[in-house]
Amino acid sequence: MEDRDWRTVPADFLQSACPWRTFRWHKGQKHYSGTYWSATMRDHVIYESRLELSRLLFADFDPSVRGIVAQPFLLKTVLEGKVRRHIPDYLLLTEQVPVVVDVKPLHRLSNPEVAITFDWTRQAVELRGWKYEVWSEPPAVELENIRFLAGYRRDWLFSPEVLEDLRGAELDGVSLRQAARCLPDRPESQVRSAIHHLLWTQSLVTELNQPLGPSHVLRWVA
Description:
10 strands, two-stranded antiparallel ribbon, elongated
């Protein structure tokens, strides 16, 4: 661990940071810790709750995110004569500015201590021109769709030839059911899986605010 001036520490330095905490395990705990293999990082990223895992899924699905760092640093400040410390949950390195993320259930945001911590953290982050985000429960249907598509995130499992054929196919405005039959010389299940991978990478897009199904219409990203 190394003390640095928050105002000058570069984002690239934080990109290689190890998680500040190790997993906390105790009998009867109500949260679930674990590791998630991130397609963005090509490596495992830790989480300390199911809600944190949900944020990880959304970050991994976001094509603008180029790096994900769990528990990237410990912030310290003096507030009203008291030393305060806080470890954010994630640092997302994006195409725009770094995003510092705290994950907290909605019902806990009204806790005064939580509110104070997030307030001074936001001020410290935004002072640098970075973005600060407090993330709570996402829309349930969208989460389930992204969780489903995450099962197709490992690119080495898909035939490059099938993916290339799909990229050359006329799929804009076509339903998922029809698209799965667009390569008659390939097994339909193989083509459907490859389409799900293209949806994960967002080469193809569709509406995710309704449960994903055969009638969903596909669009190519311009």
